[in-house]
Predict the 3D structure of the following.
Amino acid sequence: MSPEGLERLLRQVRQGQVTVEQALQRLRSMPFEDLGFASLDHHRSLRQGFPEVVLCEGKTIAQVVTISRALIKKHGSFLATRAEPEVARVIRRLDRRARYYADARIVAIRPASQKQRGHVLIVTAGTADVPVAEEARVTAEIMGSRVERLYDVGVAGLHRLLGKKDRLFDARVVIVVAGMDGVLPSVVGGLVDCPVIAVPTSRGYGASFGGLAALLTMLNSCAAGVGVMNIDNGFGAGCLAHRINILGEASFVKRRS
């Protein structure tokens, strides 16, 4: 249940439209729901502003379907990551609103009344980094952030990035996704005054060690204000960027008022 949904339920109780017993029945499974093989945290949307997210990787199709059905029933938003096409087709049968973002490997339901706020910019070093960047983009957008993309502007041709530096300066938070040598987040971090979230990818030749080389480069960045996610963790980057963005939006609205 979302904060808005809980507020609506409490109003209905106060106005006599819903009895206390009926409200208790609706709230009974709010903390968590025991499915036997999984315990769904239905309280998460109240604590963190977005429902529990399904990681499809490592689960059977039957488990994904059962979890997804329970979450969709309780919440207006839905997000399932690392969903292969076969899994995505099954989830989409549960609700016609569900959309599959193939590049991001995400199945999501976006609330109809949602307004995207703020400004997150996602930057990639190369085209091979786009799937991880798309996972970050879709995550941040479904959670409610306005997202722009600036792809394939890595250090092999730095003029491509510098030619778009105004877009960097306009962002409230920047996600930088890079494999190979993983240098791009340091470059961006040295140009902007907003938080930079670096995401190493597993793209690269043998000595990149599946993204470990990029991860270590980013952890050793000399640029201030750069935080580093785990390898290929586009979802984590999108979620963190959204939270930073929304905090900035709240501060902006407060200053204007």
Observations:
- The chain has eleven helices and eleven strands.
